[in-house]
Amino acid sequence: MNHIYLITDVPGYSPQISRLLSMMNYVRHVTLESVKNLTVHELDFLLDEESNSIGALLMHFAAVEYAYQLETFEKRDLNEEDMAIWGPAIHLGAEGREKIRGNDLTYYLDKLNDIRNRTYELFKTVNDDWLYLEEEFWYKKQANHYFMWFHVFEDEINHRGQINLIKKRVKA
Predict the structure, then answer these.
(1) pLDDT-flagged residues of the chain (< 70)
(2) Confidence at residue 172, expressed as pLDDT on a 0 to 100 scale
(3) What backbone phi and psi angles, to 5 degrees, belong to 45?
(4) pLDDT at position 171, please?
(5) What is the reported pLDDT for 3?
(6) Per-residue pLDDT at 1
(7) CA 19 to CA 16: how far, in whole Å?
(8) Beta strand segments in the chain, E
(9) pTM score > 0.85 for this model?
(10) Residue 26 in 3-state DSSP?
(11) InterPro entries this protein is in (predicted)?
(12) Fold classified for 15-168
């Protein structure tokens, strides 16, 4: 926390991976501040029959990060077993509304922390050169691991806007 506003070296990681982690840590810090002290009712609240809940969005953050762990480190997509666990959070929508509910904030924070801790461990196994490895990605275009991991926290920032909107409405 003493370095939350610094994009800098992180002990145990190469320079560019450190900077990536610095950005990911700040984004997560702001997300956690946004959901601090929310109740189960607030986490499950739906603006309408088509919206996502805050709890589902938190699970989505963990699911996306897990999916990118698999894609970039294991070179595989989520399999049937993974989808049984993470599918509702990846897809959100009706399945997410049905299956992701009734959990307290600690449940979601534990999922986010478990996945992030795995990311920390995985990032210790690679160096900056790994970030620049390219492979086919969206729309059959090339992307490097740096972009893929940028997308992990860019997606979180995007959906955090939804969380803040939902929070304003649930309290009204």
Answers:
(1) 171-172
(2) 54
(3) -60, 135
(4) 67
(5) 87
(6) 74
(7) 5
(8) 134-136, 142-144
(9) yes
(10) helix
(11) DinB/YfiT-like (IPR034660), MST-like (IPR007061)
(12) Four Helix Bundle (Hemerythrin (Met), subunit A) (1.20.120)
Could you tell me if 148 and 72 are in contact, meaning their C-beta atoms sit under 8 angstroms apart?
Answer: yes
| Whether the Cβ atoms of residue 19 and residue 123 lie closer than 8 Å to each other | no
The maximal CA–CA distance of the chain, rounded, in angstroms, is 49
How far is it, in rounded angstroms, from Cα 17 to Cα 120? 10
C-alpha span between 156 and 167 (Å, rounded): 16
Q: Residue 8 in contact with residue 138, Cβ under 8 Å? A: no
| pLDDT for res 33 | 97
The predicted pLDDT at position 5 comes to: 94
Q: In this structure, what token pair is assigned to residue 34?
A: 């946004």
Q: In the chain, what are the domain boundaries?
A: 15-168
Whole-Å CA distances, 161 to 1, 12, 55, 135: 23, 32, 14, 30
Amino acid at 166: I
**CB-based contacts of 143: which residues, under 8 Å, 6+ apart?**
134, 135, 136, 137
∠ CA 53-58-62 to the nearest 5 degrees? 140
Read off the amino acid at residue 140: K
Enumerate residues 6+ apart whose C-beta is below 8 A from 122: 69, 73
Q: Are 123 and 145 in contact (CB under 8 A)?
A: no
Q: Tell the residue number behind the tokens 């990032």, with chain if given.
A: 123
